[in-house]
Design goal:
By secondary structure, the chain is of the alpha+beta class. Helices cover about 50% and strands about 15% of the residues.
């Protein structure tokens, strides 16, 4: 997925969309997640330079904003870097503070499961043409079961049946839209409907996908999802 920097004519709406995704993700989690994301959004709204992708703020200044001590700041910033949301661009030295950037693609991938909580218009705006996975154990839009409507046969067709049986909701949201485009020895290549879809599956569902394919065909050692 390629994420456009929120600059230019549509900059304001893109900024609101990113912040909205973060807030929805916070509200869907526990107090620890909510507190961490509140702290991140406070940095974004007060000190982040969207155009240059730079957050330059000392630990003492952050501590004052967050009403915590500097040890807490150090721990929470490390958590944000561990999530991949904050990226260290320049280490502070000789009186200069560290400079961080935001990995917007990582943020959008991680918050993707809760976009539907905001609304279908939000999902359509950020991922045009994609069906949003609904909350709970409901298969969005009643995705057809494997084998219906001329579904793929062979290794991928058998794997689809396995994946559907294991988790119908995840299958309906992510796996049933994948199509087989190639097989080279132990490598199976699947095509996703968009770069975002491919990125999400590769990041969050790769091990589950490979396990399902290997149940159908143990000779497969790698599954590549492309767009």
């Amino acid at each position: 997925m390629q994420v456009l920097r929120p600059v230019g004519r549509e900059a304001a709406s893109r900024k609101y969309d990113i912040l909205s995704a973060l807030m929805a993700f916070a509200l869907s989690g526990d107090k620890s997640r909510q507190r961490l994301i509140l702290r991140l959004t406070s940095l974004i709204t007060t000190r982040y330079n969207w155009q240059r992708d730079e957050l330059s703020m000392g630990q003492a200044e952050i501590a004052r904003l967050w009403c915590v001590d500097e040890r807490t700041v150090k721990r929470e910033m490390a958590r944000l870097r561990g999530l991949g949301w904050l990226v260290l661009k320049r280490q502070g030295a000789r009186g200069r503070v560290s400079v961080h950037g935001l990995d917007l693609e990582r943020i959008l991938i991680d918050t993707r499961p809760v976009w539907a909580n905001i609304g279908t218009d939000f999902v359509d705006r950020l991922a045009p043409g994609e069906t949003a996975p609904e909350a709970g154990n409901v298969v969005p839009f009643r995705a057809p079961e494997p084998g219906a409507g001329g579904a793929a046969a062979g290794t991928w067709g058998a794997a689809q049946a396995v994946l559907h049986r294991e988790d119908a909701a995840t299958y309906g949201a992510w796996f049933h839209l994948l199509t087989e485009v190639g097989r080279d020895g132990g490598r199976l290549t699947l095509l996703a409907p968009s770069s975002f879809h491919a990125s999400y599956v590769a990041t969050h569902l790769q091990s589950r996908l490979l396990a399902g394919v290997r149940v159908a065909d143990p000779s497969v050692s790698h599954v590549e999802v492309t767009s």
